[in-house]
Design brief:
This protein is of the alpha+beta class. It has one domain. It is built from 5 helices and 9 strands. The strands form 3 sheets. It has a 5-stranded antiparallel β-sheet. The protein is flat and about 55 Å long. The termini are far apart. The mean pLDDT is 86.
Amino acid sequence: MAAGRLGGVDIRERYYAMCDAGLYGYEIHERRYPLPVVDHMLVPFARERLAGLRQLIDGADSADLAGDAFLVAELNYHYLRLRRRLSADLLQGGAGAGWRMIPQHAGNFGVRALPGAPSREAVLVLRPAPGRHATETWEYSRLVGRPGSSGAAATTWTVTLPAQERTNIGVVHAPGDLESDEMLFAHLLAGLAEVTPRTVQRRE
């Protein structure tokens, strides 16, 4: 069936209302917990992901409806929680912060605050590289900006995680300058372990 009615209300309308409520939550949290150092990446990601989920109702049958609603609720929860937690991490100077994730089924986006001076904010971002790839391919970025100022200086590396034959082990292939930076590379390994089901290993 396509859409239908539930409780006397058109299911499509109720699903769209759920997506609209999510967007309202995004807007409120983006004002309350601004993240200018990373919002140029994070906000479009959340909007595009929600817009994609909004289209799932078209042609959905009864077996899909609960799953589609769950995906919207999951994305909304993880996006709002990420904003709150990352905002707190940055206010505390990034010390001891871990990866804040929107998990795989909700889109795969990770951010980690780095310790910085009071005059700057620094974060790491890990997200799937655009396009389709035969191996897992990721963009890993370091963003540095001034607190309260939009935009950030960015350095981005492309990282691949090909699986070893007949195993679930993924060996990280990264540019040499990234591999030589022990701190950044350690954060990359920890982030990949969060976003992929593969067992992540460093290249020997």
